[in-house]
Amino acid sequence: MIAVFDSGFGGLSILKGLLNKLPDYDYMYLGDNARAPYGGHSRETVTRFSEEACEFLFEKGATLIIVACNTSSAFALRHLQNKYIIDGGLKGKKNILGMVFPFSESAVKATKNGRIGLVGTKGTVKSGAYEKEIHKLMPDAKIIAQACPLLVPLIEEGWHEKPEARMILKKYLRPIKNHGIDTLILGCTHYPLMMEDFKKYMGKNVELIGDGELLAESLADYLERHPEIEKRLGREGKRVYMTTDDADKFKKMGQKFLGRDIAEALGVTI
Ligand code: DGL
Q1: What pLDDT sits at residue 158?
Q2: Ligand 1 centre from 68 Cα, in Å?
């Protein structure tokens, strides 16, 4: 099974892309809603939460875990890969993938002037993970990063279509826009819900990177290059939705992020 893990609802925007492009695989989703948001927590806390989620998902039969949460990817992915895949002897059998590499790679491919913007949670920006990855691929790239901590709660509250949310978004984006970037990474699971506003404000000359469709392309490419993992994935069209908090609320809210019905959500303890 492919497992998608996030701090809460946001990762459903990534799962949405995967279900559209790669619908035949079996998927399970875990939202750690009880402990969300992750964005303001320390590296140590996010790493501990992410370890617990991975252990839970492997126990539930995950072959491939997609860490959709950017904060978790930025703070913990390398550690998770080392602990469970390399040291845990699972190389070639299971894997854990994150957001930072595919989004950085796409940004580097897209940019013409080498000026790349990044928006995300405080944790993602503070981690420096995107800078590190982008500089590996493009040493001269200039990265202008901006944490947007108010966007996640606004989106969770369903306020993102209100003028107040647009005003806050503009305030966050203005300094980035002034730097003449031609590519912007939406380094947070929630931001695709405001994609049209990002587009409107940044203008047609700025390429936006960070939605589930792009991630799905990157995953399709990964699976083609890794048949040893691909052949272990179920293809019965199974969908399992799990949350560490209220299952009914997850079902209701989750449908907005996923853009389709969630037949059943299970409340779990990890
Ligand atoms: N999922 C988080 C991320 O992509 C955003 C929400 C949170 O802070 O937990 O960084």
Answers
A1: 87
A2: 9
